[in-house]
């Protein structure tokens, strides 16, 4: 077994950290289909509708329109990024980083 570099495991710089966005798409598409056993023609119609939505999202992206995000999520991401920057610059150690992240999680309950 070969060793894997830490940089390949570290996802702290990645905007999407979980597969929640895939689960969200799956939920939305299941609602669009709204049948347990759709025939192939119904499935094709749903895929066509999804293609239109994806094209609209793509046009919004290339024109610079940003997705509205929940203020709570933005604030949490800002706090995580701040802790990460302090850790990368050596202002806090690993224990302080973990403690800061755990306090954020504890505050949400």
Describe this structure as you would to a colleague.
The two termini are 40 Å apart. The chain is an all-alpha fold and 109 residues long. The protein is 67% helix and 0% strand. It is elongated. The protein has 5 helices and no strands.
How are the SSEs ordered, and which strands pair?
Layout: H1 6-9, H2 20-33, H3 40-62, H4 71-88, H5 94-107
Helix pairs in contact: 4-5
Task: Pick out its properties.
109 residues; mainly alpha; elongated
What's this model, at a glance?
The chain is mostly helical.
Would you list the SSEs in sequence order as H and E? HHHHH
Number of strands: 0
Number of helices: 5
- Unreliable segments (pLDDT under 50, ≥5 consecutive)? none
Give the termini separation: 40 Å
Could you estimate the helical fraction of the residues in percent?
Answer: 55-70%
The largest sheet is: none
Shape: elongated
Structural class: mainly alpha
From the alpha carbons, calculate the radius of gyration and give it in angstroms: 20 Å
Percent strand: under 5%
């Amino acid at each position: 077994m070969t060793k894997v570099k830490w940089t390949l495991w570290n996802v702290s710089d990645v905007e999407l950290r979980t597969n929640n966005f895939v689960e969200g798409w799956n939920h939305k598409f299941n609602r669009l289909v709204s049948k347990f056993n759709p025939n192939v023609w119904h499935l094709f119609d749903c895929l066509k509708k999804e293609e239109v939505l994806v094209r609209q999202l793509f046009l919004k992206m290339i024109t610079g329109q940003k997705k509205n995000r929940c203020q709570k999520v933005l604030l949490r991401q800002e706090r995580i990024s701040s802790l990460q920057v302090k850790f990368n610059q050596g202002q806090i150690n690993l224990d302080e980083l973990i403690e800061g992240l755990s306090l954020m999680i504890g505050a949400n309950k």
